[in-house]
Amino acid sequence: MKRFLAALAISLASISAALADGASLPIPLATANGGLGGNFGSSTGLPLFASGVVTITGTTGTGNIVRATSPTIAGLTVTSSFTATGLVTNSDLANASTTVNGQTCTLGSTCTVTAAASSVAVGTTTIGSGTSNGVLYNNAGVLGNLSTVNNGVLVTNGSGVPSISTTGVPPTAVYFTDSGTGAVQTTVDAALKAQALSITNFAASVCTSDDQTAITTGIAAAAALGKPLYFPACPVGSTNSYYTWDGNVAPPANLYIISDPGVVLKLKASSGQIYGFNFGAVSNVKIENLTLDGNKSAQSGPYGRGIQSTSDITNITIKNVRLTNWYEFGASVGSSGTADVTFDHVTADNNGTDGILASGGSRVNVDFGNYYSNGRYGVTLNGVTNPKVTEADINSNSQGGLEAVGSTNLVATNNRAWSNGTGPGLSAVGSLGSTLFVGNQAWLNGQEGINITVNGSTTSGPLTATGNYVYSNSRVGISVDSESNNSTVTGNTAIGNGWEGISVFRSPNVTIIGNTILNNGGGTFDSYYHYYGIHVWDTSNTPNNFPSNNVKIVGNTIGDTGAAVQHYGVGFSDVYSNSTGGDISDNNFFGNTVGPVQYAAGNIQHASGNHGFLDGAGIENYRPYSFTPTCITNPTVGGDGTAPTYSAANLCYTIVGNIMTVSFDIHFSNKGTGTSYIYINTPSGQTASVSGAGTARLPPYVFGPIFWSTTYNAVFLVNSSGGYPLSTNTDEISGTYTMFIN
What are phi and psi of 112, to 5 degrees? Predict the structure, then answer.
């Protein structure tokens, strides 16, 4: 040990001496450690050794010693910036280019992207410029941006250029073209002004227990704005299925009210003078589609009218409106200055007096519609000039159908009046001017089918009844009564009326031409028997005791086809004095049970060309028109339910030309159920169509309880409201009816 320490001391001393002399000292390292060594004797740097000792002989110059094989660096961390120029190039990268919108661009070069993006991703695509919240648009092929403002609206001008409005949409600047051929461009402003104003705008809810305020407010607003007022159907879940009001609303001028079909304004329970719409002196009002319900059972009267006016009203239209259950009138209008009032497709029913009453004024028109079950007349015209009643159905009113009193120049065309209680179907009475009844049908009315009566008043024009069907009325088919001078009755059909087919009473210069008059008569009035086809007569009652002179009866068919009720074709009954100047020519008389004409000396001035008696002033060699009826003792019975049965039945018919008469006497043993009927087949080859009908039933629909079936080629007796409703199992029905067949 002592020798080791001595040797170490000698070595350290030698190293120190060498270092002190500036000598270099090579220190070899093991090659396992990389082969590095250093020559600390050199003053010019640090030599590098690899796999052993490398001796650098020179002591001058600079440079590096590099390994033949580069080292690998793993997990290198760079904590600050550094420069490595030329170390990595673009070509050294994995991808030397990039693709933008389908276009390839080489890295390190200049590339202009011209391809457009195929899509823009919401929340992803970056907008390079413009304003936040702006609206992008195509600005002549370049992306444009509109800056928005609070509560602003995108609008376009007439050329379609967009802009942002700071005051909302200016309607006059927004254009549109409606659908439909020929539609032209208009503005939203104009279109909105043309739209209706809804009644629902004036109440939190409608169809409640009281809609009066909404109705009155809405009417005032609509009139002020010049817009229609619209009543929609009651919303689902409303308190009522109708609007409730107090009535007594005065429509202003230029008002238009329209509703959905079936909308009802129902009057609240009340008393006193209650009107629905109470018109003042206004013009240009139209009410359409509403039902005005007067709630009659909840009123105490004495007045109650759906539409009321005593002022001068002009250009008023009531269209598709129903006036029902009013205490007094469905509508009552008129004064001397009233003009151009139209009831178009109106229904007036179950009112206390008249369905429609017009008093005074001119040009009141009743076009189409239904007027039924009213307490007096369906339609009444008092003192109206130039009224028209066209295509109206007037039935089941307590007194009469149409009653025109003192109304000049009445035109009544193509109306149907039936089953009106104690009065005529269609009637014109008083100062008539000219009066025209054309193409009407009147049946089963309590008095005349059609009545024309001047009654001491004046007339300035012709009184005409032409082309009408009147049948089965309780009294006269067509009555020309009481100074209805210069009347013309032509081309009418009068069948089975209780009195005469045509009656001329105290009226001179009447012309009766080309009518068909069958099976009329059998009724009585006072001491007069009305068993004539045509009756010309007068009365001894003053001051109207004057004869019916100069009556012309020409070219008519006047007969009885087996009903055995029309005793005479023509009869003159002179009470006050002889009716002179009669002309009876070219008529066809047949089947009248007593004779063709009953007359007194002087009644007939001329008679020629008639069938049934010889030419000349008198009646000679009456030749009856005879025929044999066909009878069926066991007619077929049927029904919709249980068919009725009978204990005895006799049903006979005769056919003369195109006139068929059926008589029947049937004793029932069981009335059956449902609609029951009895029918007979017509003779072989007889067609089932009906002259002038155009439908399965005879014009106009039913002759008493009989109608014609095109399906069964048979005549039916109907156990229903249209015929004989059987009340007990042992009922007996009998009667005689006449019809035309082809």
Answer: -100, 120
Q: Averaging pLDDT over each range in 160-174, 254-268, 669-683, which range is the top one?
A: 254-268
- E strand or H helix at 464: strand 463-466
pTM over 0.70: no
CB environment 183-216: b (16+ within 10 A), e (fewer): eeeebeeeeeeeebbebbebbeebbeeebeebbb
Tokens of 618: 């008198």
Phi and psi, residue 219, nearest 5°:
-65, -45
Query: Are 660 and 690 spatial neighbours (Cβ–Cβ below 8 Å)?
Result: no
Q: Which two tokens stand for residue 434?
A: 């000219």
As given in the structure block, the two tokens for residue 60 are 């001058």
Alpha carbons 736 and 662: distance in angstroms, whole number: 6
Nearest to 715 by CA among 691, 698, 734: 698
Looking at residue 683, the DSSP 8-state letter turns out to be P
SS3 224: helix
Rounded CA-CA distance 296/374 in Å is: 12
Q: Do residues 307 and 330 lie in contact, with contact meaning Cβ atoms separated by under 8 Å?
A: yes
The Cα 144–Cα 135 span in angstroms is: 8
Instruction: Answer left, alpha or beta for residue 636, where phi above 0 means left and psi between -120 and 50 means alpha.
Output: beta
What share of residues in the chain are helix, strand, coil (percent, to 5)? 10, 40, 55
Q: What is the pLDDT of residues 624-643, one digit of tens each?
A: 344 566 676 666 565 555 66
Neighbours of 363 (CB within 10 A): 17
Please compute, for residue 614, the number of CA atoms within 13 A of its CA located in the half-sphere on the CB side: 4
